[in-house]
Write a structure and sequence with these properties.
The chain is an alpha+beta fold. It has helices spanning 3-18, 20-34, 44-49, 51-65, 74-86, 93-109, 116-145, 231-238; strands at residues 153-164, 167-174, 188-194, 201-207, 216-220, 244-248. 47% of the residues lie in helices and 17% in strands. Strands 4-3-6-1-2-5 form a six-stranded antiparallel beta sheet, with helices on one face. It binds protoporphyrin IX containing FE.
Length: 254
């Protein structure tokens, strides 16, 4: 990036941060309207709480602020890419997020898409996207290289549902009957379910309380005051032994 472009970006970070809510709500509305298939990727229950929407835009702003020394964000990059890999985020989806984010920045700052300012933000976004895409690529590769490991989604069957205090324990076995990656206590998987009465799937992370070997067991607790997209409530209310879910490989929290 040229020094002029870096200045354009860093000078506008505070304004965008002040308008953070407008930026993120415009961004998500626009993106999910134009690319409704992403409703299967983003957890719509989290969208309703506003937690995740703020996280993505805040991370882009934090990166932009430190554009001359992105190494200060190494921890954040590790955290984001771990989450992305557990959700099977793909390189080509970065273009969609970027396009919508740039339109949202143009809207919030009230500058045309063809301006120098948006060109500078585009460079900043692409630089960050490139870092994330490369880290994610090596994480996917690392997962496939381990015994029983895989990248993306794999079909599992619910083989048992046991009641425990205020929760149910779901036992999940791979339907291909092949080896599955062993997991340590504290690692997590994403589980994807079908949302009843909608043509939609929704993912959610579950952390293992104990080490796991030839099956995975997740504890599912009911979620109060959540939307119809709560994966925990969908599992508890509609899934039975013999039903199938999609599962991503266990990964360590960062
Ligand atoms: C430069 C681009 C991106 C940045 C800076 C970014 C940043 C983030 C951050 C900070 C989080 C929250 C992590 C957490 O849960 O603690 C997140 C989660 C997530 N990101 Fe990204 N992301 C980017 C691109 C993408 C792309 C291209 C996709 C796919 C379309 C995507 C999909 C998701 C999803 C589905 C979640 C989890 C949301 C949830 O559970 O509610 N992100 N991202």
């Amino acid at each position: 990036m040229t020094p002029e472009h870096i200045k354009l970006v860093t000078d506008t970070v505070p304004v965008l941060r002040e308008n953070g809510v407008a930026l993120t709500s415009y961004f998500y509305k626009r993106m999910l309207n134009n690319n409704p298939e992403l409703k299967n990727v983003f957890n719509l229950d989290h969208q309703s709480t506003g937690r995740q929407p703020r996280a993505l835009a805040a991370a882009v702003l934090a990166y932009a602020e430190h554009i001359e020394n992105p190494s200060v964000l190494a921890k954040a990059i590790e955290h984001i890419t771990t989450k992305h890999v557990s959700l099977n985020i793909q390189a080509d989806q970065y273009a969609i997020v970027g396009e919508n984010l740039l339109h949202s920045i143009s809207e919030v700052l009230d500058v045309p898409m063809e301006s120098d300012l948006i060109a500078a933000w585009k460079e900043a976004y692409l630089q960050l996207a490139d870092i994330l895409i490369n880290v994610e690529k090596s994480k996917y590769q690392g997962l496939t290289e381990q015994n029983g490991g895989w990248a993306g989604w794999r079909e599992f069957e619910i083989t048992a549902i046991d009641a425990s205090e205020n929760a149910k324990k779901f036992t999940l076995k791979a339907t291909d009957k092949q080896e599955i990656l062993a997991a340590k206590a504290g690692q997590f998987i994403s589980v994807k379910v079908k949302v009843p009465n909608h043509d939609l799937e929704q993912p959610q992370q579950f952390t293992f309380a104990e080490a796991q070997n030839d099956a995975y067991q997740i504890e599912v607790k009911p979620e109060v005051d959540h939307t119809e997209y709560s994966v925990a409530n969908i599992l508890l209310d509609t899934y039975k032994v013999g039903d199938k879910v999609l599962v991503s490989a266990p990964i360590a929290k960062s």
